[in-house]
Amino acid sequence: MSLTAHIPSHRKPRRSASKLAVRAGVAGGVLSTLAMAGTASATPSTEPVHETTLEMPVLDMDLAAEVSSSVTKAAENTRAAAVDGELNALEETARTGAAAEAKQLKADAQQKADAEAKAKAKAEADRKAEAERASRSTERTSLQSNSGSSSSSSSSTPKGNSSAGSSQGKGTVTAPATGSAAAIVNFARAQVGKAYVMGGTGPSSFDCSGLVQAAYRQAGISLPRMSQAQSSAGTSVSLSALQPGDILYWGSKGSAYHVAVYVGGGKFVGAQNPSTGIVERSLSYDKPTGAVRVL
After folding, report:
1. Chain Cα centroid distance, residue 48
2. Which is nearest to 263 in space by CA: 174, 140, 202, 196?
3. For the purposes of burial, counting CB atoms within 10 Å of the CB of 217, is it exposed (0-12), middle (13-18) or buried (19 or more)?
4. What is the DSSP-derived secondary structure letter of residue 241?
5. pLDDT tens digits, residue range 48-106?
6. How far apart are CA 286 and CA 276, in angstroms?
7. Helix (H) / strand (E) containing 151
8. Would you say 216 and 224 are in contact if contact means Cβ atoms under 8 Å apart?
9. Fewer CB within 10 Å: C terminus or N terminus of the chain?
10. What is the rounded CA–CA span in Å between residue 195 and residue 278?
């Protein structure tokens, strides 16, 4: 027995010849099969090829009509939706424009109403102020008027002539007016008791400047219509040197708010306000600011 018999060898064991032969045969067979398949695919087959034809389904006429109708209806619905959308947009635009226009009209109307209300309030305030100035305390005025009439009669009439004093107390002038002044005074007194109407020029009603204008027309004298212009007519005179027929005014000259006719004896006739109408009053009832003489 060899000494190295139990020492394992490091060499790989050789494969047996029979296994190698089997593997070589299998590989050759595979290669032959591949070669025959390639040749068969390259050479056209002599046998006829049978093609299979698929038969497409034929649409029924009713089904085709239904499909066509559906397509048409869908198109109509799409077109109707587009039209509705456009109409809605137009309506919204019109609604917005109308709202803006209505808002502007409302603002204009409100502004106009406010302006009219302010003008009306101012006119009412002016009328009330005029009425207040023209309508003092009746009791106080009556006492002052009686006192003034008494002193006037005692200074211009001899004592014992009671009839003359009584006449003076009723508003007659100490020195009777003559000529044009008499025509003016007589006309003014004839209107006492008639109504006061703003803008009135007679014959049944007057306002203050309408009465003065109508009175002077009796003397053939044409005066401006408004009290402001009438207060600037003629020549300014002192209230202590008045003569029958003079024009009395209240307020500033050239911008007077009230006028009347001096009838003598410390009295005037004027269209005062709607509550009193045309009256004859003493100067102490509502002392005028100034006077002008046209005659």
Report:
1. 100
2. 174
3. middle
4. G
5. 555 556 556 555 556 667 777 777 888 888 888 887 788 888 878 888 888 888 888 88
6. 14
7. helix 138-156
8. no
9. N
10. 6
Superfamily of structural domain 173-293: endopeptidase domain like (from Nostoc punctiforme) (3.90.1720.10)
Q: What is the mean pLDDT of the chain?
A: 75
Instruction: Please say whether the beta carbons of 291 and 262 come within 8 A.
Output: yes
Q: For residues 86 and 45, what is the distance between their CA atoms, to the nearest angstrom? A: 69
In sequence order, which ranges of 157-204 are alpha helices (DSSP H)? 162-169, 179-190
Structure tokens at 65: 């009509």
Sequence ranges of the domains in the chain: 86-134, 173-293
Tokens of 283: 């100067």
pLDDT in tens, 142-185: 444 444 443 344 333 333 333 333 333 333 344 567 789 999 99
User: Contact, 182 vs 188, CB < 8 A?
Assistant: no
Cut 0.85: pTM above it: no
- What is the C-alpha separation between 195 and 207, in angstroms, rounded? 9
Other Cβ atoms within 10 Å of 63 Cβ, number: 10
End-to-end Cα spacing for the chain: 187
